[in-house]
């Protein structure tokens, strides 16, 4: 189980590959579900050229650990990897990675889906977008639809 | 008595303070009033005491860390 | 949108990376959800040393195309990649990959979850496991729990 | 008239035939009886006509492909 806050751009697929190789998951898991959220170059119909992601480090750490713990209590998971980017972010950069490994498919799929929703609603991160007309704090998360 | 008060994101910019220490407060709401010189509270401001979500009415104690921030937008 | 039936072992992460680079998805998508099903070295409390995956090629192709079409009608998806392995399979080999790209998170997450369930219930693949006491056809899919 | 009949997986092994052509059948059930020499039908056998799921009572026509197989277990 690993949680990372990344200051620099990261490759989510390589992070998954590395995590899988380092762990002792081999041959035990039958299911891997992942979610990656990345920066689009538009939001609410406005072009976004860059973004800054601020966070509350100590509380972020506590909440991501709590969410991971809750997921492990609720589903039968073999491993969880969570990575969240902070700092200056460019379009197409990955922002968040959630990967869940389990023996059977529903645990990893449902935990992955639950973790991204819970993270978005609870973890103290804030996005400020740079648009043509200046910098704007994103005021609230969308419902994901 | 010493209470650390933090502001994040748009609230940090509006208030103009990231981090301050106040010498006394009974509640998070009182900490807000002292740290912001009674600035008006945005309707959607969130409160955390010692890294856990709390309320403006929640009690604070010596050594506590009280944080105020807008709705979270990570992920 | 791509569907592949693979006769040989494949690397699901590399397949995703390659697909993403070849497509014109860049900067448009904000969400990527993936599911990978892989072979465990045990099933129903018995050690499984190898497996053969048989399929009905023409019907498999038709059903995977139908499922992809249905997912695109139901959710606002930018791209879908489906890969399913057939033939001789060894423990830890990936069997199925489903990857969905969308602007917002729920479309990719919900489509990915729906696609693996629909594939498991409809697509004509069959597993035969080699255990210590011989070869056994898997008689039905689990409910994934 | 020519109808192609296919068997897959455990059913292919039980029946001992992967693929055969019969000269006449009105329904998938009749195709089963002719192709298997009236072998008993397993309770859970599935039927496809021209690559779409169907029933034993479904009509078949000249040129159709009729397939019989056990519950699918892919993914």
Describe this structure in words.
Chain A has 145 residues and is an alpha+beta fold. Chain A has one domain: Aldehyde Oxidoreductase, domain 3, CATH 3.90.1170. Chain A has three helices and nine strands; from the N terminus they run βαβββαβββαββ. In chain A, helix 2 (57-74) packs antiparallel against helix 3. Chain B has 75 residues and is an alpha+beta fold. Chain B has one domain: Beta-grasp domain (Ubiquitin-like (UB roll), Roll), CATH 3.10.20. Chain B is 21% helix and 28% strand. Chain B contains two helices and five strands. Chain B has helices at residues 9-15, 28-36; strands at 3-7, 19-22, 46-49, 52-54, 65-69. The model of chain B has no long low-confidence stretch (mean pLDDT 97). Chains in contact: A-B, A-C, C-D.
Feature tags:
heterotetramer; A: 145 residues; alpha+beta; Aldehyde Oxidoreductase, domain 3; five-stranded antiparallel β-sheet; four-stranded mixed β-sheet; 9 strands; B: 75 residues; Ubiquitin-like (UB roll); five-stranded mixed β-sheet; 21% helix; 28% strand; Mopterin_biosynth_MoaE (chains A, C); MoaE_sf (chains A, C); Beta-grasp_dom_sf (chains B, D)
């Amino acid at each position: 189980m690993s949680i990372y806050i990344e200051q620099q751009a990261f490759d989510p697929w390589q992070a998954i590959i590395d995590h899988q190789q380092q762990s002792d998951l081999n041959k035990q898991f039958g299911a891997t579900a992942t979610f990656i959220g990345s920066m689009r170059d538009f939001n609410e119909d406005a072009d976004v050229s860059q973004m800054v992601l601020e966070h509350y480090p100590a509380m972020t750490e506590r909440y991501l650990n709590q969410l991971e713990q809750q997921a492990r209590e609720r589903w039968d998971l073999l491993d969880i990897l969570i990575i969240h980017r902070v700092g200056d972010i460019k379009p197409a950069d990955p922002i968040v990675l959630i990967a869940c490994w389990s023996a059977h498919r529903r645990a990893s799929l449902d935990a992955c889906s639950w973790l991204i929703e819970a993270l978005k609603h609870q973890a103290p991160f804030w996005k400020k977008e740079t648009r043509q007309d200046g910098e704007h704090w994103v005021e609230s998360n969308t419902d994901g639809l | 008595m010493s209470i650390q008060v933090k502001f994040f994101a748009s609230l940090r910019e509006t208030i103009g303070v990231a981090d301050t220490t106040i010498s006394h407060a009974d509640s998070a709401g009182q900490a807000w009033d002292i740290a912001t010189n009674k600035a008006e509270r945005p309707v959607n401001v969130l409160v955390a005491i010692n890294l856990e979500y709390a309320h403006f009415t929640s009690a604070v104690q010596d050594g506590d860390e009280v944080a105020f921030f807008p709705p979270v937008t990570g992920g």
